[in-house]
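Section 3.1: Structural characterization of target chains.
Under the original work plan, the team committed to producing a structural model for every single-chain target entering the pipeline before any wet-lab resources were allocated. The record below documents one such target. The sequence was received from the expression subgroup and is listed exactly as submitted; it comprises 54 residues.
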Amino acid sequence: GFRSLTPSQEPRGFHASTLAGKVKTIQLLGGLSLKSRIVRKPLYRVEEVKYQGF
């Protein structure tokens, strides 16, 4: 399950243009890294929630 995220712990969305040779939107939770795991079903979708700077 997922923990309830506070505003300061919301996942950040960013674009990875080198993944599978395609531009995909990857969203990671907390301190997870690309090498650790890719969240397939993030709590928040970048299409719905846009972050400044990204």
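Residues 1-45 form one domain.
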